[in-house]
Design goal:
The complex is a heterotetramer, with two copies of chain A (about 500 residues) and two copies of chain B (about 450 residues). Chain A is of the alpha/beta class and about 500 residues long. Helix content of chain A is about 35%, strand content about 10%. The mean pLDDT of chain A is about 95. Chain B has two domains: about 65-80 and about 350-450, Aspartate Aminotransferase, domain 1 (Alpha-Beta Complex); about 85-345, 3-Layer(aba) Sandwich (Aspartate Aminotransferase, domain 2), CATH 3.40.640.10. Classes of the chains: A alpha/beta (about 500), B alpha/beta (about 450). Bound molecules: pyridoxal-5'-phosphate (2 copies). One pyridoxal-5'-phosphate binds next to helix 5 of chain C.
């Protein structure tokens, strides 16, 4: 069954447009100390005068405003959200409960260790679990997202190489890599050098060989890569990079294809980041917060960001603020802790058996879609894939229907589109990652929709090129948005 | 508990359809030698009941500050969060959505972000604000990198020592690998940045001056003077704020000509969460917008001439610009920003001012109450909003631990970052601290000294 | 701004249709005691064999199913819900938090008093607050809803009259009364006698006089009545009923028009029920649960249902299971306690000042609508009204547009319709109660929509008669539903 | 905190538009003498912070059974509720909607109710089930009234003394005012209803026989025999169930020809809530549907030939039928039924059976463990599902109070309702009682005796 249809929706103004002078949505306890006159201690010129410009609305206004606009979103709890690389798996409800337990939610990062043992123990245990899952020697939970993890990983490599005598200059990055890879390398002071993928969608060993020299600090490799293809030469690749004294960084955004099946740490990789908000089921929140722990081989362990969690002889947990070789701080406080609670909950729930089965289901689901849709959509790479599959719009383009049109038409039919136009090396890419969270029923609905679109592209292309029709807004003009940016609300001038 | 909707039967059907005899065949592309031969060394999966038990147990071993009289601040503040925030943010439409790459089915997130951007502009008095960065410390590093891009030929950064020590450290870590020099400027006796030292440190090669106000020690800086000094030398000036509620009382940085306002907006509707996730923010002037890191939401029209919202100016971002992007950030703190938007909508114009007034009044009252004990000193004489340093004449860490047993968390012992401030405790006051709590703090602290 | 528009909605099967053998949405801890074989102790013929017939689905299936179908509802959190008599006011979010506090949500009704003091204190305090608000001598919190309260109220009257020597036979009920009034009287063994309303929409004193005799056990009066009209003769009415030895029961469903303004207990009334799910902001939950406390004058106090809450000398609260004259139990355990927590929270939040202001805003809002719409819709009664206003479809009927059509058209425009066809004495009634929760903005949107409909009725009646157009389902065939009732799901036979 | 969206200015505009000079004018229709001249004697409104404080304080003074080892049942059971229930029921679309009188914008509630009805039919083995009644006790009274309507000329009700005492009392209160006689039938030594006495009591004038199984004392009744006896005399038979999880193990009443199944379905996804709201249910055969009290949801089509759901057979209900309605019920327990539907969907076919198996196994284990102490007796020998009576040889109330201090709530002291059972405690066991809890119960109880 194709899900999409039309129904009742609601218009809604901006919260500023609902503002009425004197309306109030809060109340505070009466001030129980004398009201201080700030002008007594603070120079008047530093005191605010006049309006700030925040809304003045009541509680019911706030509730209705955000409730109604929330209905304009698509969400994992509505259905399949097959964004390749983004791993939009289902977010178990228990995670939301554990992460808001009062001991966690109300804990101040600087409160004494004596009253923080549970939180510290959780972080300690999570580190250990991630070490086991990835096969590495140490994990840092600091990074706030995947890209942050990449940056930290590159910093670790740089500091390590520096200690070896030379930080080097270049980082090799396959052309299929996520944009954050070169950006992270750049912030770390490296020149990003692109490596072409071969016809199998893998890193070419000969190209790699050609690129490797003493200036190479690292190779950043995603595995399975963003084509869903496992870099089967990974061991060899690591050996080659190590031979010239470089390090191998693995982007672990696709760990959902590997958990319980193989450990990157055992394939020669030196450092890896995880996206807890992908592989470990923490919700994406419309773009964050996430968490991007970094797992490292033994030689990099001394460099991880501070503070680090340790356990003393008495079994008490504490933070070591001054580990000797640490690269230093990469953020304030300890971590995106509430995200860690969710990931830890997930690991406990799934367990050893469940994590592996998740991987198996994720890969099976992706291959099922591959099988079912390859009659209708062009498959740019024939190579076997794991947890995601990339099609292109080659067939539909002939009828004037592009990837974007396919995506917009999918909205009408009630499904979130796949990741589009990424990886960049596939023209008009449609990158589909169903994850293990989808039932065959849901996949079949999506497949049916995709087939319908393939047929429409041929017979009634306008259905696609003019899509979406069902959504509260139609296709949005992104060009004008960028050309004359309106980045904040202003009352309409009449 | 496994989160696998397909029954065994369906899974078999799927495998059959794919044409493999067993699930292992799907992994044949992974070299045999790399494939695990035994299960991960983790416990077997557990039921909800058991997992909840374990987590509740860990939570019980961690005290939320609401069970204590807490005077901890230092960059993370315990404010009242109206019930609207939790109630709305738990809507799956917000928290289980992805980055709004498909705007037609993401108008909820996009509009909330657009409103958040607008509110941050108003609070800071700046022209544009982005849709969030990770946290105050990394946002500060991003601001410095931004300044470096703008002032291409300048390679010096001048930073006040009144900046949160973790922010300072983070900037140092970020810049370690880049050809940028950091010069720090000490504080003067009143606890504010030494203006003479600052003027001496800032020269033609300086890209940006960074200062925090209220600074880490709670002292309100003379933003006007610093901005003036920066302007004079054509240097950018970036102000850091960790307690945005101060903006309910203090004049917006924009009014002083600050170029970049950056910091931590956790105070707006975000729980303490033992340190994160929080809400890094950055705001700047219109002419600097193309150098801004992170996501921006813009208003536009659809093909039916309706108003709508999209991610915009994304040519700054890594997914388009790759190594030339203004930042590597991708996933940000959108949900935290949504919480802030809900919070600021509920508290609103009057509330933000009233909360600020309460915070300040409680701090002033506490200052007097502590003074009255006759047992403490106040190292800094500069004006404060809701936070100040107290010298207790004994090791601050010991005193904090002692009072913890009495259900009082007296504050942050500065010795963690400043060995020379061994006897000093940084104390913060918010609208949630009652008079009774403050009186007890004064009494117990007095008693312990 | 009129709110309604069309947008993306989702089809969804029944949960049974999503069931797949072997799918699971739960997991239990491993059984830690020996598995007992029931056949050892229970005769086999009493043991279940084969399937029960419950769904077999996963957690994500459950979440998506109920999330998606929830979107087919209209809710107070979407906007105005102007159901007259039902008082759909906004439900403050704090109520949901307090009512799910662990000490309340996990408390067993039979747990020892020593560990139940907080819950008992809350009930005790709530009784006191309701006594003050209504002006009565005692309150029973037992009744689970308004109708239950009515029944209990009538039982109290009957038992009291019985103790006076004669339970009597008849209960007088105005024709404008809610259906529960006569139904409750009937269950209590009384004959319901209808009294006609006069041209002002009030109880006619002469008709009452004529109906009063020694067989009259009680008069059941709603005040303000369901026309929104205050029975200004209430004191006189009570005197008249009392004179013949009858009792006066007041249906307090409309207390939202009186709180802080007048106390029914001081107007001569003997017993009154409250709807906590109306006046005291507890959510309606798609039809319940509610709570219908009964407030009584002194002479009825000894009769209230058991157990009753008392406080001993030591200030400890307990339940008296055996008050001598109690009518007995009317339900299991103590009350719809979680609803009481919400109502108590609301009373604390609003306070003396807030309750009164709520009434004022509720009445003002209703009169604003009255003023704005009386040019467009027929007003069957000219009498001043309080918190609700009744129009009829007299004007629109001429164009073939009935109340039902107006209601269905309102759905398209994004507003929940008023209560329709009630009270029965108004032909084609539209009974509008905005409550105090609505801003002028929201009222203006509704008024605009109502005016548009009035115009459409004249110019394009099919827009109304064929409405709704925007909703996921069109007008439903209620006649067939009742004629050949399908009351449970059965797999389709092919 | 006031929940009034209109600002003072708007309120004034409204008054002006209405044409009144002050708000008091709106109340002129209320005679002056009745209008209050001073404010209600209640405290002034409080802020969220204060109200939360007060309520948290009251909650803290009340122990949830999850903090104890609780063996309380007696009609209200502490079962595992999956997190799906709380997560979904907190959607405003469910809890802030009204009775689905406008079906086109109520399909969510209607479908959930229809699914609930279907599930209750399957569980009980009956043909139709309504969309909820208040609770088990009042539902039982409704069942008796229903039987009275069906069997117009019969005016006797026969009730087993194994029925929950509060249900019995409730029926008595309801029937007090009606010309219906109630005859109760005692139990025999094994704890089940005395069949001879029952056969003697039931005669031609009997409208219905009511029995509970498992009965209040936990004993499983011989439903087959009672149904047979009823059928023989053309009397209706109504079975009460307070622990619906028993239906995961025991044969559905429908299989024995029971006419009405009625009771309490709190066990399915509803919290203990100190006694309510709970979930009264009633199920019956198709031919009795027009006498069923309460709401029914039916399937139908819309004018676009799509499937849809509506309230149906409402000519039974008070809003149409007034004094001739099958019941006066209006507001019911729809949200509790929705929770039950979510619960039964999540737990599902396998789960309901597995939970039942766990409950039974725990009870059997506890029975043995208690027996081993050598200090208690079991007054009843009849088969049980998850609940049984224990004679502790001393005042049961005292013993329960004693154990409460050790964080064990041993059960319900029967003395509250049965003076002759002074030394007896009714104990229930669910999947949430661990072996360790049960061992501790046996040890502490043994120690206390
Ligand atoms: C392959 C890959 N690498 C890195 C990232 C960056 O992760 P984050 O968005 O958490 O910063 C992503 C995120 O989409 C990704 O898909
Ligand atoms: C006037 C009036 N009386 C009584 C009732 C019955 O209340 P409840 O639905 O809580 O049983 C209602 C409910 O709509 C009502 O409006």
């Amino acid at each position: 069954m194709i899900k999409g249809m039309r129904g009742l929706s609601f218009k809604e103004d901006l919260i500023f447009e609902k503002s009425r002078e004197g309306a109030k949505g809060y109340s505070l306890p009466k001030l129980d100390v004398p009201k201080a006159d700030p002008a007594k201690t603070i120079d008047k010129k530093f005191l605010r005068e006049g309006k700030i410009g925040l809304p003045e609305v009541s509680e019911v206004d706030v509730i209705r405003h955000f409730t109604k606009i929330s209905l304009w979103n698509y969400a994992v709890d509505y259905g399949l959200y097959p964004l390749g690389s983004c791993t939009m798996k289902y977010n178990p409800k228990i995670n939301e409960i554990t992460s808001s337990l009062p001991g966690f939610a109300d804990a101040h990062p600087y409160q004494p260790y004596s009253i923080s043992q549970g939180a510290l123990e959780l972080m300690y245990n999570l580190e250990k679990a991630l070490m086991e899952i990835t096969g590495f020697s140490r994990v840092s939970l600091h990074p706030a997202a995947g890209a942050h993890g990449e940056l930290v990983g590159m910093m670790l490599i740089r500091r390590y190489l520096e200690d070896q005598g030379n930080p080097r200059k270049k980082v090799l990055i396959p052309d299929s890599a996520h944009g954050t890879n070169p950006a992270s390398a750049a912030i770390c002071g490296y020149e990003a050098v692109e490596l072409k993928s071969n016809s199998e969608g893998m890193l070419s060993l000969s190209d790699l060989e050609a690129a490797l020299d003493k200036d190479v600090a690292a190779l950043m490799l995603t595995n399975p890569n963003t084509l869903g293809v496992f870099e089967k030469n990974i061991k060899k690749i690591c050996e080659m990079v190590h031979k010239v004294g470089g390090q191998v960084y693995m982007d672990g955004a696709n760990m959902n294809a590997l958990m319980g099946i193989m450990k990157p740490g055992k394939s020669g990789v030196d450092v890896l980041h995880l996206n807890l908000h992908k592989t470990f089921s923490t919700p994406h929140g419309g773009g964050g917060p996430g968490s991007g722990p970094v797992a490292v081989a033994k030689h990099l362990a001394p460099y991880i960001p501070k503070p680090v969690i340790e356990k003393n002889d008495k079994g008490e947990f504490y933070l070591d603020y001054n580990p000797e070789k640490s690269i230093g701080r990469v953020r304030s406080f300890n971590s995106n802790f509430a995200i860690l609670v969710r990931a830890y909950t997930y690991i406990l729930s799934c367990g050893s058996d469940g994590l592996k089965e998740s991987t198996e289901h994720a890969v099976a689901n992706a291959n099922y879609i591959r099988k079912k849709l390859s009659k209708y959509y062009d498959l740019p790479y024939e190579t076997s894939t794991l947890h995601e599959i990339i099609f292109s719009d080659k067939i539909q383009e002939k009828f004037g229907v592009t990837t974007k049109d396919i995506a917009k038409r999918l909205l009408d039919l009630g499904y979130h589109p796949p990741t589009i136009y990424f990886p960049l090396i596939v023209h008009g890419a449609l990158m589909i990652e169903p994850t293990e969270s989808e039932s065959k029923q849901e996949l079949d609905g999506f497949i049916e929709a995709m087939i319908q679109i393939a047929q429409e592209a041929e017979k009634e292309p306008e259905k696609c090129t003019e899509a979406p029709h069902n959504t509260v807004v139609g296709r949005l003009d992104e060009v004008t948005a960028a050309r004359t940016p309106i980045l904040k609300w202003e009352p309409e001038k009449e | 508990m496994k989160y696998l909707p397909n029954s065994g039967k369906e899974f078999d059907e799927i495998l059959k359809e794919i044409g493999v005899g067993s699930v292992d065949e799907l992994f044949k592309v992974i070299p045999e030698e790399l494939r695990l031969t035994k299960p991960l060394d983790l416990p077997e999966g557990k039921s909800e009941v058991e997992v909840l038990d374990i987590l509740r147990n860990l939570s019980d071993k961690t005290a939320g500050v609401s069970k204590y009289s807490s005077f901890l601040g230092a960059g993370a503040y315990n404010h009242y969060v109206p019930t609207t925030v939790g109630s709305l943010i738990s809507r799956a439409e917000f928290y289980t959505a992805y980055t709004p790459y498909q705007p037609e089915v993401s108008q909820g997130t996009l509009l909330a972000m657009f409103e958040y951007q607008t509110m941050m502009c108003h609070l800071t008095g700046m022209e544009i604000a982005n849709a969030s960065l990770y946290d105050g410390a990394s946002a500060t590093a991003e601001a410095v990198l931004m300044a470096d891009r703008i002032q291409r030929k300048k390679n010096k950064i001048v930073m006040s020592e009144g900046i949160h020590p973790e922010y300072l450290e983070t900037v140092k870590t970020y810049l370690w690998n880049l050809p940028i020099e950091i010069v720090t400027v000490p504080l003067q006796a009143d606890g504010s940045t030494d203006m003479n030292a600052l003027k001496n440190a800032a020269d033609d090669s300086t890209a940006i001056i960074m200062a925090q106000s209220p600074n880490f020690f709670g002292v309100i800086e003379n933003i006007e003077a610093i901005a003036g000094a920066a302007k004079e030398k054509k240097i950018l000036f970036g102000q850091i704020i960790t307690e945005v509620y101060s903006l309910g009382m203090l004049k917006a940085p924009g009014a002083f000509g600050v170029d970049i306002v950056v910091g931590e907006a956790q105070s707006m509707g975000n729980k303490l969460n033992y340190g994160g996730p929080y809400l890094g923010f950055i705001a700047t002037t219109d002419d600097l917008k193309r150098q801004l890191p992170g996501r921006l939401i813009g208003m536009t029209k659809d093909n039916r001439d309706q108003r709508g919202f999209v991610i915009t100016l994304s040519t700054r971002e890594q997914h388009i610009r790759r190594e030339k992007a203004t930042s590597n950030i991708c996933t940000n703190e959108a949900l935290c920003a949504t919480m802030a938007a809900i919070h600021m909508s509920t508290i609103g114009e009057a509330g933000v001012k009233e909360v600020a007034e309460h915070c300040h009044s409680k701090a002033v009252y506490a200052h007097q109450a502590l003074e009255k004990t006759g047992k403490v000193k106040f190292p800094h004489s500069g004006p404060y909003f809701n936070e100040f340093v107290v010298d207790v004449g004994k090791n601050g860490k010991d005193i904090v631990e002692k009072l913890t047993e009495k259900k009082i968390i007296a504050g942050f012992p500065l010795i963690y970052y400043y060995p020379e401030r061994e006897n000093q405790i940084l104390m913060a006051f918010t609208e949630l601290n009652t008079k009774e709590q403050i009186d007890r703090l004064a009494a117990e602290l007095g008693g312990a000294l």
